[in-house]
Design brief:
alpha+beta
Length: about 130
């Protein structure tokens, strides 16, 4: 029997025909990535387990997009999982996580990350922060 307060477990699904929700097992990683961005650490210099090192080029682009957007990022609320999605591409999942700001709540900015299966779990490659 499930607790009323707990959320259902969202499994990892390889379905290239339609977008699905971000799997529960990935969510803590995305929270850690976004927390680093909130702190202004676009290189994730402290490291996030399972996340590939962020190149200088990608870090500079992400910082530029956030700065030009003109709002202050905040940590991900639980509500972000209602609109964030992923899809299996045949080689990896393309995950799009909605970012939130102080003034707007859910913003137009998204974090795009490619997620691959790896030995013992998953590997996250940050691709970009942008407005689609």
């Amino acid at each position: 029997m499930q607790d009323r307060g707990s959320q259902p477990e969202i499994p990892v699904v390889k379905d290239g025909t339609k977008e699905g929700p971000i799997p529960s097992v990935w969510r803590p990683v995305f929270r850690n990535i976004v927390n680093a961005l909130v702190q202004g650490d676009f290189k994730l210099s402290a490291g996030v387990p399972g996340v590939s090192p962020v190149t200088d080029n990608i870090a500079e682009h992400m910082e530029s997009y956030v700065r030009d957007y003109g709002e202050t990022l905040v940590d991900l609320p639980e509500e972000t999982w209602k609109s964030s999605v992923c899809i299996w591409t045949g080689r990896h999942w393309d995950a799009i996580v909605d970012l939130w700001t102080i003034r707007e709540g859910r913003s137009d900015l998204v974090l795009q990350t490619f997620v691959r299966e790896s030995e013992g779990g998953f590997k996250f490659d940050i691709h970009m922060v942008y407005v689609p």
